[in-house]
Amino acid sequence: MPTIKVMSAGAVESMVRAIGAEFERASGHGLDLDFGTAGALRERIGKGEATDVLILPAQAIAALDKDGTIAPGSITDLARSVSGLAVREGAAAPDISTPEAFTQALLKARAVSFSDPKAGGSSGNFMARMLAKHGIADQVFAKAVLGKRGYEVAQAVADGRAEIGTTFISELMTVPGVRIVGPLPGEWFNDNTYTAAIPKSSAARAVAQAFIRALTDPATRGRWTAAGLEPAFA
Known about the structure:
By secondary structure, the chain is of the alpha/beta class. 38% of the residues lie in helices and 26% in strands. It folds into 2 domains: 3-80 and 193-231, 3-Layer(aba) Sandwich (D-Maltodextrin-Binding Protein, domain 2); 81-188, D-Maltodextrin-Binding Protein, domain 2. Strands 1, 2, 3, 4, 5, 6, 7, 8, 9 and 10 form a 10-stranded mixed beta sheet that branches. The two termini are 30 Å apart.
């Protein structure tokens, strides 16, 4: 049985791993799972790296489809993820009920963790834009604990290196020792729909499509929700 390669953004990693293990057992096919930031993965695809399944934010998949990279009819929405704020388990939570309150929480925190924009993560790029918009980029970056991946953001909070951390809730939930305060308010709210697709270059499209069907099996909807993700399929 052939092994297929799956390149996926980190926001849906927990579910891709869990359902992937079940797919391997049920189908006999192997999965070569490769997780990274959306920006880094798209750059690798742009340089010609091959994969059988690609999972990225919907807008990134749409761009690749427009340039002819994606096999027709293979695009499938998986789930929506929302950015949130986390504190260390047992620590007091700041007020993030309004955009103004969240801005003050960023300024008052001893150290703030979020994804490094240079690593290509969606939530990190969003944070960088918003910090610049509010004129507080210098203050926050001066005390930032940057993670290449979302789980590293959560780990910095769990370890006490950062007082608060923000990335997609689905990534915050994968690290023990943190408590999720809630989604970000108002104009700080950030969400992404993650979408699977099969590149035209894949030599194992049938197996790739079978794996996407496993990811979007209606019976898994409750599990996606429990993992902090809103299913985007019926």
